[in-house]
Design goal:
The chain is an alpha+beta fold. It is 28% helix and 28% strand. A hairpin with a 2-residue loop joins β14 and β15. The structure holds pyridoxal-5'-phosphate. Pyridoxal-5'-phosphate binds next to α6 and β13.
Length: 288
């Protein structure tokens, strides 16, 4: 095992990354025809593995692809890869594609899926990002209408993220027809008068595992929370705006489109939620 050639999993075998090869006819390569997950691992303990595996099943059902493994088999694979990877805190990425077949849009028959899994060091937010907040840009959400499926066809999200990268920001927060949806690889929520307001979990956003964790932690901590459509004007005038994802945990937005937002510093409800989050992570790990 070494950092430049880590062990990955491909179709039933653990192999060095340099030896993991997939056909150019794989439908993941040709069509982006597949789904994926990313599970954060703290101190070698996967965080919220079951909800990730349930969402994988939901995504597979959504694209009409049979799950090649039971939940118990996935769990064993994830734990096996974590054990073979030298970092305590990891991000386990895995994807299932519709396999290798002659190029034709319709589903191939009797084609085994391609299963790939790798684990990288988990890049949790820096202290500076937690304490100072982060910058985002905004854009009209022009992605397809099944953003609830975690598919590997991520070009829409890639183009959105690049807008942020070009502006030196970390995310692009999107609005569709005047309402908040999500960001390129995070969910988004706002706070007004002490209440967390989250957009509904419909077909226009990914049902984030961290989004659900935030709901659970807010309820446990007695922080009021509502889920309803969020008009753009309301989002831009909110007391706080947060991003959530498996790698970002929760982060406060303090700059939007180059201008300070909400006083330019993380608000009190965010600070409380961040504490709740840290206390409930496996091994209650300190931020990097
Ligand atoms: C588009 C999008 N929305 C939201 C999220 C957050 O989901 P989770 O909290 O499950 O990581 C992600 C994560 O990658 C994402 O890609």
């Amino acid at each position: 095992m070494n950092a430049t050639d880590p062990i990955v999993y491909l179709n039933g075998k653990f192999v060095p990354l340099s030896g993991a090869q997939v056909s150019v006819l794989d439908r993941g390569f040709i069509y982006g025809d597949g789904v994926y997950e990313l599970i954060p691992v703290y101190g070698r303990e996967p965080f919220r593995m079951t909800p990730h595996l349930k969402r994988l099943q939901r995504s597979l059902d959504g694209i009409g692809l049979a799950n090649p493994h039971t939940e118990a088999q996935w769990e064993a694979l994830v734990r096996d890869l974590v054990a073979r990877t030298p970092y305590p805190n990891q991000g386990v990425y895995f994807q299932v594609t519709r396999g290798v077949a002659k190029r034709d849009h319709a589903f191939p028959k009797d084609t085994p899926p391609t299963v790939f899994m790798m684990s990288n060091p988990l890049a949790t937010p820096s202290r500076e990002q937690v304490e100072g907040g982060v910058a985002v840009v905004t854009a009209e959400d022009n992605r397809w209408h099944r953003c609830d499926l975690k598919t590997i066809s991520l070009l829409g999200n890639v183009l959105m993220r690049q807008l942020a990268a070009d502006a030196g920001a970390i995310e692009t927060v999107m609005f569709r027809d005047g309402f908040l949806t999500e960001a390129s690889a995070s969910n988004v929520m706002i706070v007004k008068d002490g209440t967390i307001i989250m957009p509904p979990k419909d077909h226009l956003i990914l049902p984030g595992v961290t989004f659900d964790a935030t709901i659970e932690f807010a309820q446990a901590a007695g922080i009021p929370l509502v889920m309803r459509p969020v008009p753009m004007a309301e989002a831009m005038a909110a007391d706080e705006m947060w991003l959530s994802s498996s790698t970002k945990e929760v982060l406060a937005v303090t700059t939007i489109d180059g201008k300070p937002f909400a006083g330019g510093k993380p608000g009190p409800v965010f600070r409380r939620m961040w504490q709740e989050f840290q206390a409930r992570k496996p091994h209650a790990m300190a931020p990097a």
